[in-house]
Specification:
Length: 415
């Protein structure tokens, strides 16, 4: 009772969320993720219409996510060596500029090369941004601050996912490639206002070698964080037992997301006009609202308490896509999926931050983003191989069954 009252008081304090560094981080994130989402469902369509089929479509997303997963563990080192400005700027350039090359050549190997470059850029932007959002959060409002940052990642999906599909259908693929490059370039000026170095570096220079400000995080389930024989780096975060369940839950949810953003436009080809665009728009619109709402809830009642219904919503939304012939069922499914997926993103991230000291934020950011991107990549590639044998309805049913399996860790983690 006292803990809940203290959490509520801290969450409703007067500390400002929207400081100048936070605003500039949000601008940079909107530009980078706009470039990411604009092509996320377009490149699979581009590959499939060029003769790649379901396997080729899955490889575009899978290749990008593979590059992201490989790049993310190195991001904390680059941040410490070069600072946020140079690293985030490089990430924005990699997310956008390579897409312009597809206007000149249309070979499948070049397409995969563009996906690799974009994957590295994505890994840089999301790891640096997530850690910085946590570090810039005022005391007692970390979950809400992460929810606000999640909105900056979700708003581009609201516009980018459906707009990319719609524009490629109306204008062709090349204008979408050029628009992606322009969008990321427009975000570059905001990078100049980001902190030059990580906050933990400043803490070390001020005489706090652990970056803890003298005491562990009172909400951490493991006050010793990564000490006590647990190795440092991303591996240290990965083997922290208190992080295993939220990592599994996030990976399963993003597996389904990788399936959806890659194959829903293909699955709905030949159906009602623009149903795929409307479905993606609704899913992308609901997710950031749910992500912010989950942050508000987490600061007051604990982030892990809402994980079970969030996972259930993702599973039910995926299961509903078995009825692809019904526009009403597809739309309702996208509402459920968006609500559950947005909540899962914030709840798992905030739960993981709650269980480590401040000095572990960078490593938790890496692990969370690794689980996110590995799940998306595996979902895209695995589903592409599966549907050649089962078709779309059965493929969505198998994906929903996998999600139901992670209700068990969500139940155990609900405290």
């Amino acid at each position: 009772m006292n803990a809940r009252a203290g959490r509520t008081a801290a969450a409703t304090g007067t500390s400002r969320l929207l400081t100048r560094p936070v605003l500039l981080l949000l601008v940079a994130s909107v530009g980078g993720m706009g470039g990411f989402y604009l092509l996320l469902s377009v490149l699979p369509l581009y590959a499939a219409t060029a003769g790649g089929g379901g396997v080729g479509a899955g490889l575009t997303t899978g290749t990008m996510m593979l590059a992201t997963v490989l790049a993310e563990p190195a991001v904390p080192w680059f941040l410490a060596r070069f600072g946020h400005r140079a690293v985030v700027g490089a990430g924005l350039l990699l997310l956008g500029l390579p897409s312009a090359a597809l206007c000149l050549w249309s070979s499948f190997p070049l397409m995969l090369g563009v996906c690799l470059a974009r994957g590295v850029g994505l890994g840089i932007v999301v790891v640096a941004g997530t850690a910085l959002a946590a570090e810039l959060a005022p005391p007692g409002r970390r979950s809400e601050s992460l929810g606000l940052y999640g909105v900056s990642l979700g708003v581009p999906s609201v516009l980018g996912l459906p707009a990319g599909v719609w524009l490629s259908d109306r204008l062709g693929f090349e204008p979408v490639f050029l628009l992606t490059a322009a969008l990321t370039l427009l975000a570059l000026p905001a990078v100049a206002g980001l902190p030059a170095r990580q906050a933990t570096r400043a803490e070390r220079l001020s005489g706090d070698p652990d970056g803890r400000s003298g005491a562990p995080d009172s909400r951490s389930g493991d006050p010793d964080g990564f000490r006590g024989g647990v190795p440092g780096g991303p591996l240290g975060a990965a083997v922290n037992r208190s992080l295993v369940r939220p990592t599994l839950i996030l990976g399963a949810a993003t597996f389904a997301s990788g399936v959806l953003v890659t194959f829903l436009p293909l699955a709905l080809l030949g159906g009602p006009s623009h149903l795929a665009v409307v479905a993606l728009l609704i899913q992308a619109s609901v997710a950031p609202v749910a992500r912010w709402g989950a942050g508000w809830w987490g600061d007051r009642y604990g982030s892990s308490s809402l994980l079970l219904p969030a996972v259930l919503a993702v599973a039910l939304g995926t299961a509903g896509l078995v009825r692809l012939e019904s526009p009403v069922v597809v739309i309702v499914s996208m509402i459920l999926f968006g609500a559950g997926f947005g909540a899962v993103q914030n709840l798992t991230l905030a739960t993981m931050f709650e269980r480590v000291p401040r000095s572990g934020f960078g490593r938790v950011s890496v692990v969370w983003n690794l689980a996110f991107d590995a799940g998306m990549g595996l979902g895209a590639v695995g589903f592409g191989l599966l549907i050649d044998r089962t078709g779309y309805p059965w493929g969505f049913a198998v994906t929903a069954a996998l999600l139901l399996a992670v209700l068990v860790p969500a139940w155990h983690d609900r405290r």
